[in-house]
Amino acid sequence: MLKGSRLVSGLILTFCLAIPSALLGQVIARQGEVKDSPLHEFTSPMILEMPIKDLPVIAYNGGQDLSKQVQEYYCDGLVISKLLLTKKKDAHRGEAPGLRLEFRGSVTVRPSHDRLATIRFEVINGIDVVASTEAARLNAEEGKATSFSAKMRLSAEDVKRVMGEGKSPSLRLTVAVADNN
Q1: Residues near 124 by Cβ (< 8 Å), separated by ≥ 6?
Q2: Domains in the chain, start-ordered, CATH in brackets?
Q3: Predicted confidence (pLDDT) per residue in 117-127, tens digit
C-alpha cells in the first residue's frame, strides 16, 4: 500500500509541475493608498528661491528661521536641515550704514555615500543679484549633521535696492552636490 501512495504522490507532483504558470494565474501585488510625499527630490544643482519680504522688519541682531522652507527639498540625497538668517548693522567710518547678513545652518545626507556640497546664497531683487556669498566644500557624512556659516555684506546702496518702498527681495539658494568617495 505504501508503494502505491508514493506512486500517486509522484504522479500528482509531476502533474502540478507540468501545469503552465499561465493556467495558475499571475501574482498581483497591491499596497495601501499611495500618499503624496511632502519631500521633493532634485538632482544637482538644485535652485530654491524664497521671498524675504520680512527682511526690513527683522530687528538688528535678530533673525529668522528659514528651516521649514528648505527642509523638504533634497538634492542628491542631501538636505539643508537647518537654516537661520541673522541681520546685523554694518557701519564703516564715513560711509552710510549697510547691513550684514549671516546664514548659519546644517546639512544632512540620507544613508548612502558621503557628499561634498556647496551652497550659494544670493539676495535678489527681480532678476538683479544684489549680493552673494557661499558655504563651500561642505563634507556631509552619512549619519552626521554638517554645520556651515556664510556672511554677506550689503552696502547702503544695496540696502536701498533691496528694501526700498515697493521692493520684494528674494533669497536664492543654489545647492551643488557631488559624491565624496
Answers
A1: 49, 130, 169, 170, 171, 172
A2: 40-179 (2.60.40.10)
A3: 999 999 988 88
